[in-house]
Amino acid sequence: MTRRRGARSAVTFPPKRSLFIYSQCLAGATSETFSTAAPPPKSPQKRRKLRVAYEASAGSDAEKAAEAEAKKQKWEPKDWRRQLDNIREMRKARDAPVDQMGAERCFDSQAPPEVMRFQVLLSLMLSSQTKDQVTSAAMTRLREHGLTVDGILEMEDATLGRLIYPVGFWKTKVRYIKQTSAILRRDYGGDIPKTVAELVKLPGVGPKMAHLAMAIAWQDVSGIGVDTHVHRISNRLRWVKKETKLPEETRQALENWLPRELWSEINWLLVGFGQQICLPVSPRCGECLNRDLCPASRKR
């Protein structure tokens, strides 16, 4: 056939089935001819990220705990470390009433351990709404009559009332002391509970007493003991993020930011400081080393 000059020749493609057969034959010939050739490469796989052993996986308990702790420590009072150092300096003489007549000084150190722990708890129960001088005198009279669980239970209510008078709410405390002593003999063999949860179930025992009992009687710092002095001073120094109305609210606010290693000394420091310098009425701001750091002093 004559082809016209300049005209493009038509390209004719073989059918798809022919191409398929041809490719299969070529593949067969190649595999037979080059039997020593390396196998075809594997299809690429998605690369997996290796996790180092000490790295916490996303969403792990450790990571969540760290995030929760970071949130806890997010807020802290301004200048609190300087304020704390100044309070330590003002308390270094250890000559406040709490230093001589507090719960740590009211028990018989020669008594059996369970008796000592009972006396610690009893002194804390008496101390509520009561000055240390009055509590100490009442504890001395009780110890002279044999201050044990059995001794309290064998004592007439009138006698117990006479011995603890004039502690605050002494009539109510007579009832609480008798009820608590009965529980201790029945359920704890004359000893006191070893947990805050069990201590606060006892009649007349609140969170402050429970945490102080754990620290003094069991040498276990379970929390901060917050009384009226600690509550007042924490609010004056703005050691709470927002003003608190109750001591238990103050305890929770302090424990949210104050390093745990400082919990054991806060009660002792602030109680004595409150008894001598940061008084409830007419505080002695002129004698206070924190007079230029305390938000409350500038308002007086």
Describe the structure.
- Helix content is 51%, strand content 0%.
- By secondary structure, it is mainly α.
- The radius of gyration is 39 Å and the shape is globular.
- The protein starts with 15 loop residues before the first helix and ends in a 24-residue tail after the last helix.
For the largest beta-sheet, the strand count, sense and barrel status come to: none
Overall geometric form: globular
Task: Specify the oligomeric state.
Answer: single chain
Runs in which pLDDT lies below 50 for 5 or more consecutive residues are 1-13, 16-23, 25-37, 49-58
Record field, number of beta strands: 0
Helix content: 40-55%
Roughly how many Å is the radius of gyration? 39 Å
Structural class: mainly alpha
Structure annotation, total helices: 14
Distance between the termini: 120 Å
What is the residue-mean pLDDT, rounded to a whole number?
A: 85
Q: What share of the residues does DSSP label as strand, in percent?
A: under 5%
Give the SSE string: HHHHHHHHHHHHHH
Task: List descriptors.
300 residues, mainly alpha, 14 helices, 0% strand, disordered N terminus
List the helices and strands and how they pair.
Elements: H1 16-33, H2 61-72, H3 80-90, H4 97-101, H5 113-127, H6 132-144, H7 149-154, H8 157-164, H9 170-188, H10 196-199, H11 207-217, H12 228-236, H13 247-255, H14 263-276
Helix pairs in contact: 5-6, 5-11, 8-9, 12-13, 12-14
Give a summary of the structure in a few sentences.
The protein is built from 14 helices and no strands.
